[in-house]
Write a structure and sequence with these properties.
heterodimer; A: alpha/beta; Rossmann fold; eight-stranded mixed beta sheet; 12 strands; B: alpha/beta; Pyruvate-ferredoxin Oxidoreductase, domain 3
Chain lengths: 341, 611
């Protein structure tokens, strides 16, 4: 019986819950759901060992659509709740589902601290640059000047670059993917889950209702080749329809160059190293934006460091070995104890 | 030859600058007294500034201890002996002194500059204003210096030993042995022999000074207490709370998880638990109060015994997450060690003014269990009980403590883990009948299913749940049903707690009602009047929500009910709402200080005379 069960491979179907998916038709969230389900199948993670913890927002309905364990929590707090869950049971594969409002506004504090600690969680940040569930207010990633329901005269706030914030907080795994590239998304999710420590996957996600085509310049059929740099480990940073444009380091700045022009050849082009401990170049890649640069996609940073939950449980195990106390009764009777007869 | 007088009980207060080591002197004295089998109760009273300006009344730190053979139910009202290390310490305590009280002063500190800084217009040692008291002026600073002169310590290190000189004088005054204190220093400064020597010399110098110079003053002996046989140790409320949680987790055989953020006066629970990782306790110092409780909710979802600790301002921040725990019906204990409020209020002072917040303070109809500890030592039992209720009834529980008992200490009769009651988690049905929101028929609680359990995969969350299936539901009738089920679940806890008791036999006139940490003082005041034959009884509540089932039965026996609490009448208002058939008189105090027995007796006599 046991053997039969173990041999039974999990398929995507096993991860689809019985709940009707209620995202708007055309919403970018569907692509993420598919990619995550594929990832769990690829890794054959038992259903009972995967937990999706979400905050509040459209994307945060995600756990209801997964046939695993799931916890739809409160606005901004998913990372904190997931932290406690992972520390309670480190054997679980814990995924935090969050949006730009959830993680970068109301939950900003938990976002930077969960990264700082390097707890072994995966956080998928659905970045649609708008508050969707509350119907169209500016978010911390809304572009400056954009007109929204809460900023009818244009927002006067500077947006966060989520990856820059994450790297500043000490992130060891950061990837960015558009919701239009399920193949890349699945590859990235797979690496995020395999990475020991905190993994951040930012999905440039389209909100068809309140911020339609917000990422169109990046993801459009005709523009994506010129406007996306898809990073691959150990490969030169080439992009463009003809793959003849590349990124070169000029002094302390990046610049776009064209192969064959001004004597530029492939050896002048930067080679991507997501494993590089120094985050300087990763941060520069993260900050690249249109129209001067393509937007960097794929795994920008993937380094290893001490993992919080390992240290956390390591201290406990160490203390268990070292302690003079073997039971609470020992503790209660230690020190100044007096007897009344 | 000096005379020795035997006493039933004595109140001593050590007072000095925040940096004078008064808390340490008080704690060491407490250990000595407790070791001799005395009943004890202590009350540290200190400013929230770490070091307020030296020599000012604002910077005075005090430690009061009541010790004796019997009748020690509280740290006592006013001291029989005051140790004042400077004019400010004298000034801060003068209004609370009774005639014939003994005052030990450091005469070296009564310089014009110092008594002026303390707010005296003339030197109190020279204007006869202390004539009602027995004043012992000892040159504590200079004698400490002389005695330690050859040790080569700097002034600062020498001054740090003054508290031991003062403690030595107290040991002399009460004929107490120094072994306990000497052992403490040997353990602490074993590797710093000079510091060890300095402290012990100062201690002995204080004793010698008493014997030689003050030989004409009576010294006292406090008779040993008639206490239950057994092993005892001193314990503060916060330490007992921490240990109660560890004991409960050991009993359930699950890991204990504390998710918390530092806040006075709750932080010592974090400090205590942090020492005991050997027992498997998981400590998560979160980035804020919200993450403190949220991590605990996550840990509870993951199957740990999850607690979070805080005080008033932190409670406010945790409110939304408590609502999530109510909605998702996860077991969690929220400890609120109350301090004076609102807002930052009085961080180091005591109050009971977060009761209404605990009972009602959440959006939505959001019922949960509220219980309160009532003495430093029984914080152990109430922490244990909080976990029992949380996991057996699968609900958040708020455990109220208060600064007064959290920092106060008393002897705790050590319990054995095997003697503690069993805590039984409901088994999860294995026959396929399980649903996430199916309920135990007697308790109306759902089963506690945690990720990792194969075949039980399900989703929970803050959105309203369909009864049974736990799927998201906006159906009107379903919401009504779920609100009712959540209410019933808490109400049903009353079937699983002991009945309320009261102190009294034939009395029928006046019932004193108290709750939480003011137990000892109320008990002391009522006992005193009962001894005098007054028609007065006393009942004290630890279970607040739900109330014990026989509460109305007890109330009905009395003509008058007087509810005493350190707030503006929050428990009285709650009783009015729950048991409106009775009328309630109130006695309230909002000074950041506990009740005094004297003011209670005065009030009780007044009410008795009116009736």
């Amino acid at each position: 019986m046991e053997g039969a069960l173990t041999n039974c491979m999990l398929t995507t179907k096993d991860f689809v819950s019985n709940q009707q998916v209620k995202w708007c038709p055309g919403c970018g969230d569907y692509a993420v759901l598919n990619a995550v389900q594929k990832t769990l199948v690829d890794l054959q993670i038992p259903k009972e060992n995967a937990v999706f913890v979400s905050g509040i927002g459209c994307s945060s309905r995600f756990p209801y659509y997964m046939a695993t364990y799931g916890f739809h929590t409160i606005h901004g707090r998913a990372a904190a709740i997931a932290s406690g869950l992972k520390l309670a049971n480190p054997a679980l594969s814990v995924w935090v589902i969050s949006g730009d409002g959830d993680s970068l506004a109301i939950g900003g504090n938990h976002f930077i601290h969960v990264i700082r600690r390097n707890l072994d969680l995966n956080l998928i940040l659905f970045n649609n640059e708008i508050y969707g569930l509350t119907k169209g207010q500016s978010s911390p990633t809304t572009k400056k000047g954009q007109v929204t329901k809460s900023a009818p005269h244009g927002t006067i706030e500077n947006p966060f670059i989520p990856g820059e914030l994450a790297l500043g907080a000490g992130a060891h795994f950061y990837a960015r993917v558009p919701d239009t590239n399920v193949k890349l998304m699945t590859q990235v999710m797979l690496e995020a889950e395999k990475h020991r420590g905190f993994s951040l996957v930012e999905v440039l996600q389209n909100c068809v209702i309140f911020n339609d085509d917000v990422h169109a310049a990046i993801t459009g059929k005709d523009s994506k080749a010129d406007n996306q740099l898809i990073l691959e480990q150990g490969k030169p940073m080439l992009f463009g329809k003809e793959m003849n444009k590349g990124i070169r380091l000029n002094g302390l700045r990046l610049e776009v160059v064209t192969l064959g022009e001004n004597g530029i050849s492939e050896k002048d082009i930067l080679v991507h190293d997501a494993y590089c401990a120094d985050p300087t170049l990763h941060a520069m890649l993260t900050r690249m934006k249109l129209p001067d640069f393509p937007v960097a996609m794929g795994i920008i940073r993937n380094t290893t460091s001490e993992v919080y939950n390992d240290l956390f449980h390591g201290q406990i195990e160490n203390e268990k070995k070292k302690s003079e106390f073997k039971s609470l009764d020992d503790l209660f009777h230690s020190g100044n104890v007096f007897h009344v007869n | 030859m000096s005379k020795t007088v035997a006493l039933e009980s004595v109140v001593i207060k050590f007072a000095g600058d925040s940096g004078d080591g008064m808390q340490l002197a008080g704690t060491l004295f407490t250990d000595t007294a407790a070791n001799l089998g005395s009943q004890i109760a202590t009350f540290p009273d200190f400013p929230s500034e770490i070091r307020a300006p030296q020599g000012t009344v604002a910077g005075v730190s005090g430690f009061q201890i009541n010790f004796g053979r019997s009748g020690v139910h509280s740290p006592g009202d006013s001291p029989n002996v005051l140790v004042a290390m400077n004019p400010a310490a004298l000034k801060a305590n003068l209004t609370n002194l009774k005639p014939a009280c003994t005052i030990i002063l450091d005469g070296d500190t009564f310089t014009k500059k110092e008594w002026e800084k303390a707010g005296f217009l003339v030197n109190p040692l020279e204007d006869n204003s202390l004539d009602d008291y027995k004043v012992i002026v000892a040159p504590i600073t200079s004698l400490t210096k002389t005695n330690l002169a050859d040790l080569g310590l700097d002034n600062k290190a020498t001054d740090r030993c003054k508290n031991m000189f003062a403690l030595g004088m107290i040991y002399w005054l009460f004929n107490l042995p120094t072994d306990q204190t000497v052992d403490f220093y040997k353990l602490k400064f074993g590797k710093k022999p000079i510091i060890l020597e300095a402290n012990i010399r100062a201690l002995n110098a204080g004793i010698n000074y008493g014997e030689i110079v003050q030989a004409n003053t009576s010294s006292y002996t406090v008779l040993p207490a008639d206490t239950l046989t057994g092993s005892y140790r001193n314990i503060t409320g916060n330490q007992a709370t921490a240990w109660g949680f560890m004991a409960a987790a050991a009993k359930v055989k699950r890991d204990l998880f504390l998710g918390t953020y530092p806040i006075t006066p709750a932080t010592d629970i974090l400090h205590e638990l942090s020492k005991h990782k050997w027992s498997g306790v998981k400590i998560f110092q979160a980035e804020d109060e919200i993450a403190g409780i949220c991590s605990a909710i996550g840990a509870s979802y993951g199957g740990n015994i999850a607690i979070t600790t805080t005080s008033g301002p932190g409670m406010a921040l945790k409110t939304e997450a408590i609502g999530l725990a109510v909605m998702t019906e996860l077991p969690i204990v929220i400890v609120n060690v109350q301090r004076g409020g609102p807002s930052t209020g009085l961080p180091t002072k005591t109050e009971q003014s977060d009761l209404a917040e605990a009972i009602y303070g959440r959006p939505g109809d959001s019922p949960l269990v509220v219980i309160a500890a009532s003495t430093p030592a029984n914080c152990f039992d109430w922490a244990f009980e909080a976990v029992r209720i949380a996991v057996e009834h699968v609900t958040p529980v708020i455990l109220l403590s208060e600064s007064y008992i959290a920092n106060g200490a008393e002897p705790w009769r050590i319990k054995k883990i095997q003697d503690l009651p069993e805590i039984k988690i409901d088994p999860v049905p294995a026959d396929g009948s399980w649903q996430p929101y199916a309920r135990n028929p007697l308790k109306k609680s759902r089963a506690w299913v945690t990720p990792g359990m194969k075949g039980y995969e399900h989703r929970i969350g803050g959105l309203e749940k369909e009864s049974g299936s736990g799927n998201v539901s906006y159906a009107p009738k379903n919401h009504a049903e779920m609100c009712e089920l959540r209410r019933q679940k808490i109400e049903k806890v009353a079937d699983f707690i002991p009945l309320q008791r009261y102190k009294g036999k034939l009395e029928k006139k006046l019932l004193i009602v108290g709750w939480g940490g003011q137990f000892g003082i109320l008990y002391g005041a009522v006992s005193e009047l009962q001894k005098q034959g007054k028609d007065i009884a006393f009942t004290h509540f630890n279970y607040i929500v739900p109330l014990p089932k026989n509460t109305a039965e007890i109330f009905a026996k009395f003509e008058t009910i007087l509810v005493c609490e350190l707030n503006n009448g929050q428990f009285a208002d709650y009783l009015r709402a729950e048991l409106p058939q009775f009328s309630y008189l109130q006695f309230n105090k909002m000074e950041g200080q506990p009740f005094t027995i004297e003011e209670l007796i005065k009030k009780f006599n007044h009410v008795l005379a009116d009736k």
